[in-house]
């Protein structure tokens, strides 16, 4: 029902169970981290999330570097993430700074059927965060809505 608010705690899901559901459904997943001048934190954040890629829950971990003036992109790449510059995704539109800018370009530049976001500057990143985001989406595919799935006729 439109407008219904659903809440769930990440503890309701186990990563291994979600991997099984994801594989059974043939679904791919991407984690997008918009980042600007996050050299100091992005490596630790990726340490928390990249094991989920290794375990099969995430197919892609994409850092969208939003015109950083530091080594954010290099640190993220060295950590094992795929990194794209904000201006390299849909280059017909000039790049601009801003989280929203990096987010829409991250969706466009990602490869997953399901795309979730995390911040690159948090100090307490943990895999439970991504498990909590993907759990409801993999648990109830009907809860996922996209522009492509809505009829305009």
Taking strands numbered 1, 2, ... along the chain, how are they ordered across the largest sheet? 3-2-1-4
Distance between the termini: 20 Å
What is the average per-residue confidence, as pLDDT, rounded to a whole number?
91
Helix count equals: 5
Strand proportion: 5-15%
In N-to-C order, the SSE pattern is HEHEHEHEH
- Based on CA atoms alone, the radius of gyration comes out at 16 Å
| Helix-residue proportion | 25-40%
- Pick out the low-confidence regions: 147-153
The major β-sheet equals: 4 strands, parallel
Molecular shape: globular
The number of E-state strands comes to: 4
Structural class: alpha/beta
Can you walk me through this structure?
This protein is an alpha/beta fold and 153 residues long. 37% of the residues lie in helices and 14% in strands. The chain is built from 5 helices and 4 strands, in the order αβαβαβαβα. It has helices at 15-25, 42-54, 72-79, 99-109, 127-139; strands spanning 29-35, 60-65, 82-85, 114-117. The protein has a 4-stranded parallel sheet with strand order 3-2-1-4, sandwiched between helices. The longest helix has 13 residues, at 42-54.
Strands, helices and their partners?
Elements (H helix, E strand, L loop, with lengths): L14 H11 L3 E7 L6 H13 L5 E6 L6 H8 L2 E4 L13 H11 L4 E4 L9 H13 L14
Parallel strand pairs: 1-2, 1-4, 2-3
Give a brief rundown of this model.
The protein is an alpha/beta fold and 153 residues long. It is 37% helix and 14% strand. A four-stranded parallel β-sheet has the order 3-2-1-4, sandwiched between helices.
